[in-house]
Each structure stands twice: as structure tokens, then as C-alpha cells.
């Protein structure tokens, strides 16, 4: 049953755009007609503390949280949060973190969440246009160009 | 919930912000519904009761501890009943992601005698909100919608019904004094009436209640509710499952039939053993969760352990980075001063509770909203004079309006011999829950300008001899000196430390420049 469910955990610090990134992934999966669930803990943790969000999609998803050790992808926006979340990743899972962007220059650190989604997108079977649509839907128009560029950077990194 | 409330043409949504319930009213407003913040949960519920007495549809939202604040009217509105619909949301926080306790508010349904629905995902949050309105109007009874963190803070796909929601009946007052005035002579028959309604609802729940049966193994059955159902389906795909929707009053006969049809029936539930105890009290043969699973949230791994009877220690998560006061937050100056003065700080709920963490370590108590003043006064009454003079109560602006005012009345009424100092940290917003408005900001939920509660005017009128309004960051040394003088004065003092929250400052400037909506007379 969980065989066809893809599990993604996105983690970082409050203010880095963890929740925004997970909303974008959830939208992309939703637009392709899959069952999608997304879960997060925020509240007190948004004051600069650790934040993480789980996105799961497939033909049928039950738990909104990714069970420990079952994440196919762990996307971490801040290097300090890698070890905190490593237990989420399954042995064959893929870690996507800011080191992927070494040698590339982002216009703004604020778009690191979208840049890492670019890197994630290469591993998932959704058309690039679906990602662009989801990003557009979650960001103000004046931020579109910068984030499309960040997404491309991550996708090509 | 907000979408359902909107689709049901809700008359009014009221509440007080509290994680994980805050987004319901904000979403309702953004969908075009009518929603407002109240000073606290008790007032929010009272307003909701009035709406429902008048024949309207009301949704009242709060976090689990908020229901403690609203408990007084809650128990009596069960007796009075309502004419329209009254739906009360309790958003429980098992695991305490951002709360001071993990109370299980299913106990309130039993104690107050109020039917309770437990949604387990976004679809059920939608469906059960509509159902709650329907049940409330059908039996003229308030209905409790009990949510948990994982239902509130998860997103799952929702299909809205293809049929129109029945229109709300027209509002209008129908005088019915014996039903609305709970003097003992009217309350006694009202209690009998309530029990009769609950018996009818229990029978309805047995016949056509919102429950689901997933057929499966004859040997393993699971009775569950809410989000636990999702974990059960993933962890134990072979099990037969009875998922309950209306969990008070319980469909005990259905539970009995289900339990005896399986060799082994587990009750899997998050929090207290409410379902298990109820089943076992009725002589239904079920296994309850082991005590260790009573703490924190459930998840797929824990449900696997429950089934296997595995009581070995659970893996401890790697600690994350704790939250902290923002850099540049005005509270930082205040807590630095209190730390350096060696104060005994009676604290309260809000961002400033982060003053308890390093580098400040400057908060000594935190009990519940508004408790800082009463607890500080108690300390002043009992400690030796030199220690008593170090006690200071600290509260935020939103929390002061919520339940600090009556504490201040106590301070005026029963002043300790050494006097007392109350610090109101006024950052112009309800910061912790995500920058909501409150009566002290003078703006409504949608940021339109309205009547403003002016702290210093009210406090002066209460007869406090020393009231100071200062910006602590402008001159930290002068602020420290003011605190020191006030502590030593032997008088009652209030210092309002006023500077806008960093995160809200830009938006507040905008709101003040172009007030939207109507401006009320002050």
C-alpha cells in the first residue's frame, strides 16, 4: 500500500520558507490528480526554531506524517538541520541540502527553498510547467522572476 | 471548517487565537464570512450563545486550554440549549507542540453533556462542521468539534458536496424564559431535558451516526477515532476497523457487536483512554493502549508497537533548534533588565515566555493565560520582604486583555505589604499565534479600525498610583532604573513597555495610514 506513496520531508529554520516549499510540492502533486497529504508543526517553533513539514502523495495516502525512516527525499534548507532530520530518510533516500548549490549564485537567500525544490523536481515525474504554476500560485507576482530563476538554478545544479 | 462554515452561511464566527485553532476564523474571513476576535474564549462563547439564542448559526473557535476559560458558560448552555446552531471547536494539542499541557478535551463532552464529533482529516473537518450545524439545529443543543494538532496542521484533499447546504432559518428572538434563564427552578428540569436529548442522540448515533467500518481480519479488530484512524489504516492494513465520528454519546452497542466479532479488539486513541475506559465500563472486551502511549502524539510506528505489545523504549528524536525571541525584539531589553536585577518573574503565555530560555533565563513561573498577576501577588504575600521586593509580574498586551484585567483588580483590592510591579509588554499585536489583532490594537480581525482599549487610561482609572508608559529599547538603562525604583517603592506600579513587534511593525504602519472599514466612536 505504501509502495506507491512518495514521502518528502522538508526541514529548516523558522522564516526560511519550509511551509511555503511544502505547499508548492503538495500543489504540484494535487494538480497531477494524486491523493496528497501534508503536515507540519508550527506555532511557537516559528520563532527561529526548527520547522519541518511532510508531504506524501500517491494513489491513496493515510497518515499525514511520513513515518521515520520512510522518506524518499529529505530537503533541508539549513545545514544545521540535517542531523536533526536524518532519521526521517530511508537508507536509499536522497538528501537535498544547500551544498547542492555550491558554486551557483542565488539573487536572494530567500529563494533557497524554491532553488532546492528545483533540485527535488529532477527526481520527480512532474512536468516543469506544473512546478512553475504552483510557484506562481504561492508567491506575489513581484517575486516570480527571482524564484523562477532560483528554481532553474536548482534544477540544473 | 472555515469553508463549511462559509457554505452553511454561518451568522458569526468568534474566538480567541490559539495554536492550532487560529487559522479557522482567519480563513473564514478570507472566504468572505463574518468572523471576529473576542478578548477571550469565555466572551467568544457567550457571544456565540447569543447568536444561537437569536436563531443564528455560530462557530466558536479556541485551543484546548481556551475551553477551560470558556467552561463556565459551556456547562450551562448545554442546559439552555439553543435555537439556531452553536458549534464549539476545541483544538487539542497532544504532544504539546505549542501548549502548556496536553489535556484531552473529550472529557469536556462527558462532563458538560455535549455531543462531540472528532474529524480525522480535512474532508471530515468539512463534513463534520456541516453535520455539527445540522445536529445542533435538530436537537437544539451545542455541539463540540474536537480537533487535534495533526488534523489542524495538515492539509488533505476536500470534496465539497454536490447538494446545497440547507439554508439557515431566519434569525429572530423567541422568548422562552424557562429555557434560557438558568435559575435553579428552571435548571432542574433543563438537566432532565438535556439527558433525554443525549439519549436520543445516542440512539441516532447507533442507527445512522457518522462512523465507518473497514472490513478485514476476523482476528484483529481496531476501534478508533480522529487522526488515529489514518495511522491504523497504514500500520495495520489487515485489521478490521470501526472508526467512530460522534464520540459522545458513544454507540456502545455497535462497539460491542464489533468487539465480540473479533478474537482481539484494540482501542487505538491519542491522549487519554477515553474510548477504552468507556468500552470497558460497558463490559465490552477491548484492549487499551499501554500507558506509555498516553503521552505525546500517535504515529504509524507507535500504532505498530501498540499492536505488537512492544513496550521497549522509543527512539528519542534528535533535538531541534529551540525557538527564540527575534533579534531586535523589544522583549529582549526587558528580560535582560529583569535578569540583571535578579527579579523573580511571574510570567505568562505569549512570545515573552521565550524569556525563560537562554540567554535570559528570566522567567520563574508560567501557569496559564493571565496567571502572572495572581501568582506574582501570591509570591509577594508569602515571601520574606527582601525576596518579595524582587517579584515582578510580566504579561503581554493581548494576554492582559484576555484575562489580566481581573488580576489587576485583585492587585488593587488586596495589595501586598511590599506593593507590586506589573510589567505589560505591549508590542501592539498577538505575536505568538501569528500577529492577530486584539482590543488594545483598536483594529478588528480584518484590521479595520474600531474602538480601542487604552491600557493606561483603564489602569489609572483603577486607582494604581504609579503608571508609566515607556519604550524600553530607547534607553535600556533608564528602563532598568525605573523597574528598580518601582520594585523598591512599596507601592503598586504598572509599567507599560510599549514598542511594536518587529514582525508586525510594517503592517501596523500600513493599517494606521489607511484604516479600512468603519471607524466606531470611542
UniProtKB/TrEMBL annotation, chain A:
GO terms for molecular function: oxidoreductase activity, acting on the aldehyde or oxo group of donors. InterPro entries: IorB_Oxidoreductase, Pyrv/ketoisovalerate_OxRed_cat, Pyrv_flavodox_OxRed_cen. It comes from Paludibaculum fermentans. Transmembrane segments: none annotated. It holds the Pfam family POR. Keywords: Oxidoreductase, Pyruvate. This is Indolepyruvate oxidoreductase subunit beta. The keyword RNA-binding does not apply.
Amino acid at each position: 500500500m505504501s509502495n506507491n506513496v512518495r514521502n518528502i520531508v522538508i526541514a529548516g529554520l523558522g522564516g526560511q520558507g519550509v511551509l511555503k516549499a511544502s505547499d508548492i510540492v503538495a500543489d504540484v502533486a494535487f494538480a497531477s490528480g494524486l491523493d496528497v497529504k501534508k503536515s507540519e508543526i508550527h506555532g511557537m517553533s516559528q520563532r527561529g526554531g526548527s520547522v519541518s513539514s511532510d508531504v506524501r502523495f500517491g494513489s491513496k495516502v493515510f497518515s499525514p506524517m511520513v513515518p521515520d525512516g520512510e522518506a524518499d527525499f529529505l530537503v533541508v534548507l539549513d545545514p544545521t538541520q540535517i542531523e536533526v532530520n536524518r532519521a526521517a530518510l530511508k537508507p536509499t533516500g536522497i538528501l537535498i541540502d544547500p551544498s547542492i548549490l555550491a558554486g551557483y549564485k542565488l539573487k536572494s537567500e530567500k529563494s533557497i527553498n524554491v532553488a532546492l525544490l528545483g533540485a527535488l523536481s529532477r527526481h520527480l515525474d512532474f512536468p516543469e510547467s506544473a512546478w512553475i504554476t504552483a510557484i506562481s500560485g504561492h508567491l506575489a507576482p513581484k517575486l516570480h522572476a527571482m524564484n523562477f530563476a532560483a528554481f532553474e538554478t536548482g534544477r540544473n545544479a | 471548517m472555515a469553508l463549511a462554515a462559509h457554505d452553511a452561511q454561518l451568522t458569526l464566527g468568534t474566538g480567541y487565537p490559539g495554536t492550532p485553532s487560529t487559522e479557522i476564523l482567519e480563513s473564514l474571513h478570507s472566504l468572505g464570512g463574518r468572523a471576529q476576535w473576542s478578548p477571550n474564549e469565555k466572551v467568544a462563547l457567550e457571544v456565540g450563545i447569543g447568536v444561537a439564542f437569536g436563531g443564528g448559526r455560530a462557530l466558536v473557535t479556541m485551543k484546548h486550554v481556551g475551553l477551560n476559560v470558556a467552561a463556565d458558560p459551556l456547562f450551562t448552555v448545554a442546559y439552555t440549549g439553543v435555537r439556531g446552531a452553536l458549534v464549539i471547536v476545541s483544538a487539542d494539542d497532544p504532544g504539546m507542540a505549542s501548549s502548556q499541557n496536553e489535556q484531552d478535551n473529550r472529557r469536556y463532552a462527558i462532563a458538560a453533556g455535549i455531543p462531540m464529533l472528532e474529524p480525522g482529516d480535512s474532508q471530515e473537518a468539512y463534513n463534520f462542521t456541516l453535520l455539527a450545524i445540522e445536529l445542533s439545529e435538530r436537537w437544539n443543543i451545542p455541539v463540540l468539534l474536537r480537533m487535534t494538532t495533526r488534523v489542524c496542521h495538515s492539509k488533505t484533499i476536500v470534496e465539497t458536496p454536490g447538494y446545497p447546504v440547507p439554508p439557515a432559518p431566519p434569525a429572530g428572538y423567541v422568548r422562552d424564559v424557562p429555557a434560557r434563564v438558568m435559575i435553579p427552578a428552571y435548571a432542574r428540569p433543563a438537566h432532565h431535558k438535556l439527558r433525554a436529548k443525549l439519549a436520543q442522540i445516542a440512539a441516532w448515533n447507533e442507527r445512522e451516526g457518522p462512523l465507518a467500518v473497514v472490513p478485514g481480519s476476523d482476528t484483529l479488530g481496531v476501534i478508533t477515532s480522529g487522526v488515529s484512524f489514518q495511522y491504523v489504516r497504514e500500520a495495520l492494513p489487515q485489521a478490521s476497523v470501526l472508526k467512530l465520528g460522534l464520540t459522545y454519546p458513544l454507540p456502545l452497542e455497535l462497539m460491542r457487536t464489533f468487539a465480540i466479532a473479533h478474537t482481539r479488539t484494540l482501542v487505538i486513541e491519542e491522549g487519554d483512554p477515553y474510548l477504552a475506559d468507556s468500552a470497558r465500563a460497558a463490559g465490552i472486551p477491548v484492549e487499551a493502549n499501554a500507558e506509555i502511549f498516553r503521552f505525546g502524539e500517535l504515529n504509524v510506528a507507535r500504532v505498530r508497537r501498540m499492536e505488537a505489545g512492544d513496550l521497549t523504549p522509543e527512539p528519542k528524536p534528535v533535538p531541534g533548534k529551540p525557538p527564540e525571541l527575534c533579534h531586535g525584539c523589544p522583549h529582549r531589553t526587558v528580560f535582560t533588565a529583569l535578569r540583571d536585577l535578579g527579579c523573580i518573574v511571574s510570567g505568562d503565555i505569549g512570545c515573552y515566555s521565550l524569556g525563560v530560555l537562554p540567554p535570559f533565563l528570566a522567567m520563574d513561573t508560567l501557569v496559564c493565560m493571565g496567571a502572572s498577576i495572581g501568582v506574582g501577588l501570591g509570591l509577594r504575600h508569602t515571601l520574606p520582604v527582601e525576596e518579595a521586593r524582587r517579584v515582578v509580574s510580566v504579561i503581554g498586551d493581548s494576554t492582559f486583555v484576555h484575562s489580566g484585567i481581573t488580576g489587576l483588580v485583585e492587585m488593587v483590592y488586596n495589595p501586598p505589604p511590599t506593593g507590586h510591579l506589573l510589567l505589560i509588554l505591549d508590542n501592539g499585536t498577538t505575536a505568538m499565534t501569528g500577529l492577530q489583532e486584539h482590543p488594545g490594537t483598536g483594529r478588528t480581525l480584518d484590521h479595520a479600525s474600531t474602538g480601542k482599549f487604552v491600557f493606561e487610561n483603564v489602569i489609572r482609572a483603577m486607582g494604581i498610583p504609579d503608571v508609566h508608559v515607556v519604550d524600553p529599547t530607547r534607553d535600556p538603562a533608564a528602563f532598568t532604573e525605573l523597574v528598580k525604583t518601582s520594585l523598591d517603592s512599596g507601592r503598586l506600579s504598572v509599567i507599560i513597555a510599549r514598542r511594536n513587534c518587529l514582525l508586525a511593525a510594517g503592517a501596523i504602519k500600513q493599517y494606521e495610514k489607511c484604516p479600512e472599514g468603519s471607524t466606531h466612536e470611542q
